[in-house]
Every structure is written in C-alpha cells, then in structure tokens.
Design goal:
Elements: E1 2-4, E2 13-15, H1 21-38, E3 58-63, H2 69-83, H3 85-92, H4 95-101, E4 107-114, H5 117-126, E5 132-135, E6 149-152, H6 174-185, E7 189-195, H7 205-215, E8 219-227, E9 238-246, H8 272-276, E10 327-331, E11 334-337, H9 349-355, H10 374-387, H11 391-422
Parallel strand pairs: 3-4, 3-6, 4-5, 6-7
Antiparallel strand pairs: 1-2, 7-9, 8-9, 10-11
Helix pairs in contact: 2-3, 2-11, 3-4
Length: 423
C-alpha cells in the first residue's frame, strides 16, 4: 500500500509504515471497495453451469493467462504426477498424443481471464476446450468461479525505482483483484509470478507490502527468485514466484531444486544449440528492420553453447541469432556486428517459442489482419511468447503441488466415503 500526503498538485506517495496484519487487511479491503465501486458491475458474467468442474481433480483458475505458458506447465506437471514423467514428456512433443492423455492431468483448468485478444485466440486453439475463456477487464469481473488453485502473473507496469508510487498508475493495483479473487474463492493454493525488479523497487517496500497483502487474504506466503535455466530452459530469465498455502492446510510448499547447472549431479544447462540448432535452415518468419541505438548499446547476441538473453515481449527487441561472429564492444554504449548487420538477424518466432519451452505444435495467433504489415502481425506473436512464463519453469513450480494434490484428493475422497457410510 501507499499513503497519499496532503500536498497540492500531483499526488506524492511514501512507503507505508509497518502495519499489523489486521491493519493491512483493513487497508486492503478499503482499496478493494474503492476498486469495486469504480469498476465492478452488478451483473454476473457466467453461471455455474458454464464452468466444467471435475471433483476428482484440482480445479485451476487462471488470471492474466495470456497465451497459456503457466497453465500449460501446470497441466504438464499434473500429467507427470498421474502417468509418469517419461510418458508425459514424450506425449508433450506431439499434439495428437498430448491431447489423447492431457485429460489425465491432476490439474483441471476451469477458467482463464485476460484482455489480450490474440493471446486468448492462441489459448483457445491450444488448450482444452472445456476451459471457460473470459476476455474481460479483471476489474469488471464481479465474481470468480470456485477453484482449488489460482495461478497468474499479475502486471505491474507503473512501478518506479524512484519510490513505491503504487497509486500513480491504476494498473499497479491489478494485483488487488488477484487478492479479491482469493478472498472470494479461498482456493487451497495460489501461485503468482512477476519480474525480478519488483523485489527491489522502493528499497523493497513495494514487494514487502504486496506479500503482506496476499498473506492478509488468509495464506502463508513464500517468495523466491528462480532462474529458468536451472530448470531446463535455454534462457537466462529470473522471475519471482509467490506461493500461498491456505492457513488451515497442513502443507509446506518447497520450491523445486535446480535440475540443471554446473554442479556435480545436475544435468548440463540446455544450450541454444540444443534448443534451436535444428532450425538454422528453416527458422520461419522473424521480425526485420534496423537496430536502434538503444538496442546496440549492449550485447544482444549469445553463442551457441550459451543460454539466450531474456525473451522480451517485442519483436524489435528480440535477441540476435547466435550464428556468425560475436558482437564487439567499440564504445561505452555501442556494440557492433563485426560481420555486418546484413549477416545478423533477430531470433524467429519459432526459435523464441522453443526457447520459452513451448512445444512446436503450440501455434500463436497473429490476429489474421492482413491489412497491417508482416512485422505488425509477427509482433503480436512475439508479445505473447515474451510475456509468457516458460512452460518448463511453470512445470517445475507446479510439480510439488501436483504431488501434494494427488494425496489431498485421495484423503478427501476417503473422508467423504466414510461420512456416507456413517450416514
């Protein structure tokens, strides 16, 4: 939270003092009420009949779902828990094989929400058809359906290193609606993902307060910075993963240990050669055009035996393909292509999709508007892929939950059976 000072002109904000949990909850509820009065209508968007629950699985509700990277990773982890990793990962490579077994996953997504039209088109074309896909501003969703787990990567575009000015940009309070969802639904677990920078903004005050806000909804909250390359992703991509377990549950979530690295006993990091080497002769479409001075202010090119820079949500900002000579630093803020710009290109859509660990069969919508340029259409795809959580990072985060969910459902079913026998 942030406190507004009584100064004329543009609002000034300072970090909130240290509050007790009940005080935090009171402030949070006040802000939620303000948000509800400003945005939420009195009309429900859907009926319970439209949400296809499965009582023998962990029903998943996905907020800010985008193209579905987080959801797909959970689905895969849930499938591994039921049919084994070898069989699940083999099926994951082929769309028909995966579609034939994906219903066996312990995770069953019932609802997804986002505003990005092309991303939802992608989601619809690749995810199970029983999911209720809701294209609506989350601030205007009156009630959310029931679920056992809520997942999502809430945006925070207006945060500034200058200080936690949380209410300067209304989009910064979208996380409030994630918490509003938790308060309504009270799922057993939630998982939220965000950028690394959120941990240090305003001297850490922003992050501390957000964690307290989530905890005030009734959850034991943990937060940890994970690097995607430690979990089989050919990319240097650090993300904050918040996991909340409802206070009444006897489950202590443990973050996944690294499976890849340089230490003894770990698999080697996945390289660009392994991830996209076979696409050299047929990379598919890629964003074209000159490179800005900002783009050339630092190295944008990794070698074949390294991992990619973080994939951005922009075609123009896509890293350079590793083929050819390395870039060379010739000035404090200037790197050049020693073999010429004409011999260097940005990574293609197919390549960044691989680097984000989406399977080849996962197709990304470009909107289909042939009246705009090819670069414009491609950028829609770059944006979706760059915004997504790497599938294998999501899978790693979800695996401990999947194992626990299997046992939790089994125990609950046993209790229900005993109660029926008693009656």
């Amino acid at each position: 939270m942030a406190i507004k000072l009584n100064e004329r002109g543009r609002g000034k904000f300072k970090p909130a003092p240290t509050y007790q949990k009940e005080e935090v909850k009171e402030l949070l509820l006040e802000r939620i009420n303000e948000e509800m009065e400003a945005y939420i209508s009195d009309e429900s968007d859907f009926s319970d009949d439209e949400i296809q629950y499965n009582t023998n699985k962990f029903n998943v509700l996905s907020l800010f779902c985008g193209a579905g990277g987080l959801d797909l990773g959970f689905e895969l982890a849930g499938l591994e828990a039921t049919i084994g990793s070898e069989r699940a990962l083999q099926a994951f490579k082929d769309k028909e094989e995966f579609n034939a077994v994906r219903h066996e996953s312990i995770f069953h997504t019932v609802y997804s929400n986002d505003l990005f039209k092309e991303a939802l088109e992608t989601y619809k074309n690749n995810m199970p058809n029983h999911v209720y896909i809701h294209q609506k501003d989350i601030r205007k969703v009156k009630e959310f359906p029931n679920a056992n787990i809520v997942v999502g990567g809430f945006p925070c575009p207006g945060f500034s290193e200058a200080g936690p000015r949380l209410v300067d940009d209304e989009r910064n309070f979208l996380y409030i609606h994630f918490i509003r969802c938790l308060m309504q639904v009270q799922p057993e677990i939630f998982v939220a993902e965000n950028v690394k920078g959120m941990m240090t903004l305003g001297g850490g005050e922003v992050f501390r307060q957000i964690v307290e806000d989530f905890a005030s909804a009734g959850y034991r909250v943990q937060a940890k910075l994970l690097n995607s390359r430690d979990h089989g992703v050919a990319q240097l991509r650090e993300r904050v993963i918040l996991v909340g377990v409802r206070n009444d549950l006897d489950f202590e979530y443990e973050y996944p240990e690294a499976t890849h690295g340089t230490e003894e006993g770990l698999l080697p990091f996945v390289t660009l050669e392994e991830a996209i080497g076979d696409l050299q002769d047929d990379p598919g479409p890629y964003f074209t055009g000159s490179y800005s001075t900002i783009f050339l202010s630092r190295n944008r090119k990794k070698n074949w035996n390294e991992q990619s820079f973080t994939i951005q949500a922009s075609g123009r900002q896509a890293p350079i393909h590793p083929g050819g000579a390395p870039m060379e630093k010739v000035h404090k803020n200037l790197w050049v292509f020693t073999d010429g710009e004409e011999n260097n290109r940005r990574l293609s859509v197919s390549e960044i999709k691989r680097i984000q660990t989406f399977p080849d069969w996962y197709e990304f919508s470009d909107g289909g508007n042939m009246k705009v340029s090819a670069n414009n259409r491609l950028d829609k795809q770059y944006k979706q892929i760059g915004n997504a959580v790497p599938v294998f990072l999501a899978r790693a985060v979800a695996k401990p939950i999947a194992e626990w969910a299997m046992q939790y459902i089994k125990e609950n079913n046993k209790k229900e059976t005993q109660m029926k026998l008693f009656v």
